[in-house]
Amino acid sequence: MAGVAEANETTPASEAAGYPVEVQPMDRYNQALLDNARPIGWRNPTPDGRYNLVAIGSGTAGLVASIGGAGLGAKVALVEKHLMGGDCLNTGCVPSKSIIRAAKAVGEIRRAGELGVHVPDGVSVDFGAVMARMRAIRAGISHDDSVQRVTGTGVALYFGAARFTGPDTVEVDHDGERVTLRFAKAVIATGSRPKRLDVPGAAETGYLTNETIFELTELPPRLAVIGGGPIGAEMAQTFARLGSAVTVIERNGQLLNREDADAAAIVQEAFAADGIGLIFQAEVTGLRRTATGKVVEYQVTGQPGELEVDEVLVSIGRAPTVQGLGLEAAGVAFSDKGVSVDATLRTSNPNIYAAGDVASRYQFTHVADATARIVLQNALFPGPKRKAGDLIVPWVTYTDPEVAHVGMYAQEAEAKGNKVQSFVQPLDHVDRARADGETAGFVKIHVKAGSDQILGATIVASHAGEMIGEITTAMKAGVGLKTLATVIHPYPTQAEAIRKIADQYNRTRLTPFVKRALQTWMSWRR
């Protein structure tokens, strides 16, 4: 990787000219990204008869559907309006996790003294180098989503705006040149976009979203984060550790409102240790500019408040991308919640399916991948249809510590008529967590009372995202908590907490009657 001086170099405008899309800053890394994701001089192919499958959108769902379909022998076309790779590559998972890793290193150095390791000069962060590293990583990964890879699989790739013109036709407009694609089946995979902040002064003042924050080359000294969900929480902690004075403004009473309160409380304690300000039960009422920054106006239980910062990051959720697609002409039902689909991901037009954020309540890259695979089978092959409701979906919020979850929460399971028994293993009783100095966390598993059937789990730990897979696999395979007690976990690992919970469950099976019977048996065996 280039050194800091090299990494911060930008390309003269004359050399950067010619790209149909700009990604700021236009340095050599972003040019490499564009060479893969939206190259200069691209010419769309000429449509060649009817396609087995047309995919609209080249994010994870569109890529999996189109490349997978071509690999199965289908004649496939893929349409992309902006950049190959969609949100995950360009403005989501890849850039965010790259800078989160830098922020985690800062956290590790700051607490090194607890381990007996002293860093005399403290932590010095070169924000420009952190962001350059991110852009270099993104450029490298972009090869996997590139035009070269996609077309190399036999997919016909079209850049431009897609619009349905009938129940089996899509028009693609590329800089005024229009072509019509006919299809037997189609999949809408247009993803989602950040929700806008609709308060007075927001448009005039301006604010960042996940689509623009990764364009920064200078660290904002003061940053307000509106929204304490997963994206807001991840970026708040990251920018605080990289040197910003960060305040989170959240309308609910805790961070990560979807998660259990005990999980959110641990993350909030970590935020307090990082010096992050937290304002809960707050309703943002306006933004305005001043001579020295931007002011966020808000109310807490009717009492007004103001916060002046240099930048504002808005992270208040995501909206499915359904505008301008001509869905009415195709007979596809939709709303502001996305494209309406049945259990098999088929829309109201029986030949059109939808996958990923545009049709799923789970807006994750791995769900986009999984739903695209369901569409491939259901759209291209006869026989029994796969159902999206059968998916067992884990997710992770990449704060430090991480929060991972799979299945149902206890209250959710009870609302569905289940009697729930929950087991919790605090990490301060797990040897590896104690050795690592990472005891603020737990593993919690819910089972159906009277059985060992796992209904859901939450893990709060430094590497919770790596641990949740074991429980997800058990749920998918129908393996109960009793069986997990027989799985040998390497010692010492934090994942041993899962085995400890399984041991907890097994001890509940030792009822007074069983215990007396065992004592009688052992007495007889003397």
Beta-strand share of residues: 15-25%
Q: Please mark out the parts with pLDDT under 50 across 5 or more consecutive residues, or reply none.
A: 1-8
Q: Globular, elongated, flat, extended or rod-shaped: what is the shape?
A: globular
* Number of H- or I-type helical stretches: 19
Helix content: 25-40%
Mean of residue pLDDT values: 94
- Give the strand tally: 23
> Major sheet, described briefly?
7 strands, mixed
Question: What structural class do you assign from the helix and strand content?
Answer: alpha/beta
Give the end-to-end Cα distance, rounded to a whole number of Å. Answer: 70 Å
Q: Can you lay out the helices and strands and say which pair or pack?
A:
Elements: H1 4-7, H2 13-16, H3 28-37, E1 50-56, H4 60-71, E2 76-80, H5 86-90, H6 93-110, H7 127-141, H8 147-152, E3 156-159, E4 161-166, E5 169-174, E6 177-188, E7 192-194, H9 202-205, E8 222-226, H10 230-242, E9 245-249, H11 261-273, E10 277-279, E11 282-290, E12 293-300, E13 303-309, E14 311-314, E15 318-320, H12 327-330, E16 334-335, E17 338-339, E18 352-354, H13 365-380, E19 394-397, E20 402-407, H14 410-415, E21 420-426, H15 431-436, E22 442-448, E23 454-461, H16 464-477, H17 481-484, H18 496-508, H19 512-524
Helix pairs in contact: 3-7, 4-13, 6-7, 6-10
